[in-house]
Automatic annotation (TrEMBL):
Residues 437-600 form the Integrase catalytic domain. The keyword Phosphoprotein does not apply. Gene3D superfamilies: 1.10.340.70, 3.30.70.270, Ribonuclease H-like superfamily/Ribonuclease H. It comes from the Eukaryota. The keyword Hydrolase applies. Residues 1-70 form the Reverse transcriptase domain. GO terms for molecular function: aspartic-type endopeptidase activity; DNA binding; DNA-directed DNA polymerase activity; endonuclease activity; metal ion binding; RNA-directed DNA polymerase activity. This is Pol protein. GO terms for biological process: DNA integration; DNA recombination; proteolysis. Keywords: Aspartyl protease, DNA integration, DNA recombination, DNA-binding, DNA-directed DNA polymerase, Endonuclease, Hydrolase, Magnesium, Metal-binding, Nuclease, Nucleotidyltransferase, Protease, RNA-directed DNA polymerase, Transferase.
Amino acid sequence: MDLMNRVFKDFLDSFVIVFIDDILIYSKTEAEHEEHLHQVLETLRANKLYVKFSKCEFWLRKVTFLGHVVSSEGVSVDPAKIEAVTNWPRPSTVSEIRSFLGLAGYYRRFVEDFSRIASPLTQLTRKGTPFVWSPACERSFQELKQKLVTAPVLTVPDGSGNFVIYSDASKKGLGCVLMQQGKVVAYASRQLKIHEQNYPTHDLELAAVVFALKIWRHYLYGEKIQIYTDHKSLKYFFTQKELNMRQRRWLELVKDYDCEILYHPGKANVVADALSRKVAHSAALITKQTPLLRDFERAEIAVSVGEVTAQLAQLTVQPTLRQKIIAAQLDDPYLAEKRRVVETEQGEGFSISSDDGLMFEGRLCVPEDSAVKTELLTEAHSSPFTMHPGSTKMYQDLRSVYWWRGMKRDVADFVSRCLVCQQVKAPRQHPAGLLQPLSVPGWKWESVSMDFITGLPKTLRGYTVIWVVVDRLTKSAHFVPGKSTYTASKWGQLYMTEIVRLHGVPVSIISDRDARFTSKFWKGLQLALGTRLDFSTAFHPQTDGQTERLNQILEDMLRACVLEFSGSWDSHLHLMEFAYNNSYQATIGMAPFEALYGKCCRSPVCWGEVGEQRMLGPELVQTTNAAIQKIRARMLTAQSRQKSYADVRRKDLEFEVGDMVFLKVAPMKGVLRFAKKGKLSPRFVGPFEILERIGPVAYRLALPPSFAAVHDVFHISMLRKYVADPTHVVDFEPLQVSENLSYEEQPVEVLAREVKKLRSREIPLVKILWQNHGVEEATWEKEEDMRAQYPELFED
């Protein structure tokens, strides 16, 4: 078809229509048709394309094309195709209904009110609907056949514009008719979607107009249109001052067209108003409807009664929660006494409702220590209609309908003991644990901190890593480039040549738990040198905040280097080190270079006097000691200031040995599920027992074997206290958590398969059961992606 379109591109939609290998040539006169035919045949010859003469027809007054008969009168359905519909046997399965509707729907533009007529059949195709062939389905089936046999001849738009649209809407669907010069061009209709059934009348009528403009855009765009509706207020839609968001969105669409909305009374709008508005008000329905509404009113459920669109076939009546509460009131001594007072005299605030329920200020009284109160709290918190609200929201929802003593306290206690809320809800309070500043070192390069910046672009020398080493006293630093393939012994060699050679062996090293720092070689080297290793707690980088902050500064320098200078980043790394060490540090009140060497560093923009300056030994020692004491005092002042600021946004929290706590995790890191990475999985796992307190804000936990790769000491901000409840069924089977405290979901089984059919392709899908989740949480994934990522899942 692409070849045919390219060959006849100059003639398409002028006098030629091409569909795959079929060529349709149309003209207004015989002379014009002869010229058009000659041009088409010459074009075929020029492109060395051939047509079989026996399959050609010339000089036709009527032609059958794509299931339609096209003539000078207009377009009508192909009788041969309609014969297949009229001879169609009664469907016995959902698939057969879909096949019938698919063929009949191809000609829906010829059938007025197609969606209304086909409504009983389309309802049978909905998921979960039992297949019951009712009389309504039979009438729909036969009426569609009859409508297609007697389908009218639709006119073909002549290009003169001046289209007229008749639109109408009801509680069942939208209907519209496109006309030109008094002749019908096409019919269109559809059923309302679920959310559209709640639209007010004005929006429904406007939706019918928008539906017509969208479906016939290829006819209407750029043409003058008159739209007739039986809803008078739509006349003023373009001048209406206040519009809701939906109407504003539709206004933008309608303004694309040169249209005028006119009022046409409903009785005169007989074409579009054919959408049936019949209401099944039977005596039986009215008889059953009234008591049901009274029950809803007693339960204080607001009921809005509109047009009746279905009959109630069967209703199973069970005791309502309200009835259970009223029955339980008789067993509560306090409420029984209040009922006696109300029945004998006027009780202050208490009263008896029409269904014999004890009320307080218009709210139903709930008995203390009763099963119905627990059932009520569970329904208000865990049902599909509430979805685990917080205590404040839940209390406000309940207090408008129910009352009992200590209600707010009970609601807060119930929410705090909810196992699901403890595992999935993010903490909204200040983080736990007050700031614990590290001690200030006594001398230069006595205590250092270090970290790695990884994942950098590979340079010509193969460097992808920067090792950042910082003196905690003077803030002076060294940036050492390296490769991700370096072994622990190679890093040890660089440590000796780049750090120890210049500053000697430090007393202590603060770092995170990177594999390079926890390796046996590194620990053995530092033990031999007499250096103490101080590791940060698991997943709490604030312990080594100095190096983490310097990493951010260095990364900003690297970004600036990429933009400003040519070459690889490693060729400028020594200049970045110089720039950092020669820049002012607010904590110590001077540049790191000055703190380290006792004087400012000369640079192209900052220089001192050139000449010989001598300082005697005692004076040098005294000056250096004074500088160190000044730096230490400034650091202590800065730490005190930072602690006062930080503690305002933190809370002091302590746990006891033996307490059970949840552990914060990063769920399903890097795994795509529910179209979002990890957003629908628990934030906390556990609970785990606290074995030991390590320092003021760290605790050792009893972790299961699957957490063997994770260090068992955690900062208090990673923990959440477990509030126990006898009803909890805790799954102590641990997740497979990786070293970085994240866990990947693994598929367990393929539960089902289906093919999603799009307009131009099909997408095979598989329903996957995931580890750590039940069948109800199984998800549909692309089979192609799952086969690529988990081939073992599809092995026999």
